Amino acid sequence: MKIEEIFYHASFQKDLRKLSVQDVGLAAIAEDTFRKTPLDPSLGIHKLSGRLRGAWAIVVSHKIRIIFVPVEPAGTIVFLSVGPHDLYDTVHRRLRSL
After folding, report:
1. Counting beta carbons within 10 angstroms of the beta carbon of residue 91, is it exposed (0 to 12), middle (13 to 18) or buried (19 or more)?
2. 40-66 pLDDT, tens per residue?
3. pLDDT score of 98 more than 70
4. 47 in helix, strand or coil?
5. I want to staple 48 with a disulfide (CB 3.0 to 4.6 A). Which of 27, 33, 52, 58 is the partner?
6. What distance in Å separates the CA atoms of residue 82 and residue 23, rounded to the nearest whole number?
7. What's the CA angle centered on 35, arms 33 and 39, to 5 degrees?
8. C-beta of residue 78 within 8 angstroms of C-beta of residue 84
9. Nearest 5°: phi and psi at 61?
10. Are residues 52 and 91 in contact, defined by beta-carbon separation less than 8 angstroms?
């Protein structure tokens, strides 16, 4: 997988502002690693299922995730949300809007 471009859902930046400075820093490191080496095992990337089928998660820390979806053209990613594990309910609504 090669990442050509990452777009941010309108609410992603809002979610980012809710995080602590430390978590924002960890998210930035995870994004940088993802851009350079998308399949790096340290990212803990995994497919989501159920209502979030088609979305993926990056493990930023024990409590923080970045949820994203690949879109066309190939190599294009949309970051939907960042935050604690309970953000999955919110992401479901964003995923339907794509």
Report:
1. buried
2. 999 999 999 988 888 999 999 999 999
3. no
4. strand
5. 52
6. 10
7. 70
8. no
9. -155, -175
10. yes
